[in-house]
Write a sequence for this structure.
């Protein structure tokens, strides 16, 4: 029997599949899915084609509505979607960024080896769990006034640095140096600020986590070396969190406001969650200024958590930060809209690049890549699920040419949360992970079952596709030995 | 007792479908479904209440805003609601008093966080009793 998507998708090569504009009336560009043939069956079951096609309705969208191999069914935009719109006559859509604005990943290196950490892993995880507020309803250790919060929103990571959380080098090794320009706290509702104040410096719940992992494969020695990844067995720390309730409220506020704007500008959309406004309209600009605030909140959040992570390691191993070599490799965001320049029809154009569950992947030599990585390309951090580890890669020229400098962001769900919970219990997940040598501490056993490996595509498959399609190049892989989750 | 609500499966997030003899009841049951995702409501007492008044361009938007307002209060004030008395509800306006309790970690086990109600898969159907559907970002 032919696969259900045959006759709909046009095969370009083994990793590129086109959804032609004839698929749905109203698409102004075609869709382009990066996937292996084996992955398409899952993608097909998941209404993702519809969502990729719906994004192609957005006014001013250029080239393709893009889908990374970790694509899955979202709300409005698919998760793992990339869409670039012209600044001069295109739109910006808060749904194309998502509720967790600047959800992202930060990777730290250490001089520690698995051999040194293994005997102390229980103690380390317990210490991290105490030191880093996590879980639903948890409150941060930082208390800011509304006035101070406004500074966080404008300065991002730099605010944290000024308060003593972190090192100047951390900021260099952060996308946008941890501060998206144009942030304007006046464009943020008081409700968003009320949600944001108590949650600053918290990991959160759901799929957010902090992971102690061990390098088990190195694919590109030179690039790894530039990142301070020297050998198999070296311990790394991965932090995955975002802008918490602050970002959620900014998104809710602007989906509502732009839902109104859609009518004023006479834009017709197939899904209300795609609400948008022209990039250059007052509504579009207001959203971008508020979104930048949320992005800066998230970077501050990850910066503070980095500081407490270092404190925990120093305490448990009784060595200084310098002796432990606790340096930041990089920090990337995977839910964001940014104004970037790309050649379109031979002319440089300013575009609003929406990355929703997608990572920026700039190549070697790009001016936005920090000097230390100028020769290898921007580090791309791709977390997997709790049991299967994560990848470090670098950006490429192909990504610049094809995907507006973007690649995948993670494993991508294949099983619903409810289904995962029905088939697994949190306690069993802990046992199973323990059998693999992974220590877990989670706020909720239910949330643990929802995030179990079985609920996700294998991150290896996802990374293979982006590697073979040339969107990002594999550098190293690491697998977890300890995890804290909300 | 008639079914109040059910969970609708979705790969990344969680949808709910709520029922009621009246639209007020369906909206109240949708709110109950929301907080049932967050915790076991049997362990929640009615200790505090909050009044909500909303205006929206249509009833579907009103449903999203109603649920988002409750998520906001939960996040900002840590209150779990279990009973909802909707005193006014038409196409553009909602007035309600919601009863519940502040989160007490010794008593309430929190299950999952809900980021927001979305407009995706959103439905308000009054043809055969009342039925509403909404997808939450988890």
């Amino acid at each position: 029997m032919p696969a259900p998507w045959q006759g709909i998708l046009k095969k370009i090569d083994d990793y590129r599949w086109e959804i032609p504009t004839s698929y749905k009336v109203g698409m102004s560009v075609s869709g382009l899915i990066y996937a292996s043939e084996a992955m398409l069956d899952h993608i097909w079951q998941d209404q993702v084609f519809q969502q990729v096609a719906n994004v192609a309705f957005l006014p001013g969208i250029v080239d393709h509505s893009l889908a990374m191999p970790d694509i899955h069914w979202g709300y409005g935009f698919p998760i793992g979607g990339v869409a670039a719109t012209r600044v001069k006559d295109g739109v910006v859509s808060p749904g194309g960024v998502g509720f967790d604005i600047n959800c992202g990943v930060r990777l730290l290196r250490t001089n520690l080896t698995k051999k040194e950490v293994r005997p102390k892993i229980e103690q380390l995880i317990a210490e991290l769990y105490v030191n880093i507020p996590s879980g639903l309803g948890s409150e941060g250790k930082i208390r800011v006034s509304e006035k101070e919060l406004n500074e966080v929103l404008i300065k991002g990571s730099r605010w944290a640095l000024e308060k003593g959380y972190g090192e100047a080098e951390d900021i260099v090794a952060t996308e946008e140096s941890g501060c998206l320009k144009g942030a304007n706290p006046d464009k943020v509702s008081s409700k968003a600020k009320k949600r944001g104040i108590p949650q600053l410096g918290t990991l959160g719940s759901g799929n957010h986590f902090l992971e102690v992992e061990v390098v088990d494969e190195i694919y590109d020695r030179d690039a790894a070396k530039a990142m301070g990844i020297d050998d198999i067995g070296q311990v790394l720390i991965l932090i995955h969190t975002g802008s918490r309730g602050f970002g959620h409220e900014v998104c809710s506020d602007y989906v509502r406001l732009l839902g109104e704007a859609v009518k004023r500008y006479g834009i017709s959309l197939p899904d209300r969650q795609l609400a948008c406004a022209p990039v250059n309209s007052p509504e579009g600009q207001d959203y971008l200024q508020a979104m930048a605030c949320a992005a800066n909140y998230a970077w501050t959040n990850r910066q503070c958590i980095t500081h407490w992570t270092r404190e925990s390691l120093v305490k448990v191993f009784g060595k200084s930060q310098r002796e432990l070599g606790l340096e930041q490799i990089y920090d990337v965001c995977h839910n964001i809209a940014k104004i970037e320049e790309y050649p379109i029809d031979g002319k440089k154009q300013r575009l609003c690049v929406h990355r929703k569950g997608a990572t920026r992947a700039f190549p070697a030599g790009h001016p936005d890549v920090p000097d230390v990585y100028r020769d290898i390309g921007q580090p791309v951090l791709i977390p997997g699920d709790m049991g299967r580890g994560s990848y470090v890669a670098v950006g490429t020229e192909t990504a610049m040419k094809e995907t507006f400098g973007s690649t995948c962001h993670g494993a991508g769900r294949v099983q619903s949360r409810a289904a995962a919970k029905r088939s697994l219990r949190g306690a069993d997940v802990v046992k199973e992970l323990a059998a693999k040598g992974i220590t877990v501490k989670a706020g909720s056993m239910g949330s643990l079952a929802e995030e179990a490996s079985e609920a996700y595509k294998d991150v290896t498959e996802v990374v293979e596709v982006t590697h073979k399609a040339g969107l990002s190049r594999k550098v190293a892989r690491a697998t977890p030995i300890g995890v804290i989750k909300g | 007792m008639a079914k109040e609500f059910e969970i609708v499966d979705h790969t990344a997030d969680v949808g709910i479908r709520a029922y009621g003899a009246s639209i007020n009841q369906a909206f109240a049951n949708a709110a109950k479904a929301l907080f049932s995702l967050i915790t076991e409501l049997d362990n929640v007492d009615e200790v505090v209440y909050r009044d909500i008044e909303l205006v929206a361009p249509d009833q579907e938007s009103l449903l999203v805003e109603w649920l988002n307002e409750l998520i906001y209060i939960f996040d900002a004030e840590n209150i779990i609601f279990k009973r909802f008395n909707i005193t006014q509800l038409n196409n553009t306006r909602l007035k309600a008093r919601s009863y519940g309790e502040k989160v007490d970690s010794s008593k309430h086990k929190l299950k999952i966080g809900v980021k927001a109600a979305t407009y995706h898969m959103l439905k308000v159907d009054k043809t055969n009793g009342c039925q509403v559907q909404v997808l939450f970002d988890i």
The CA atoms of residues 310 and 326 of chain A lie 7 Å apart.
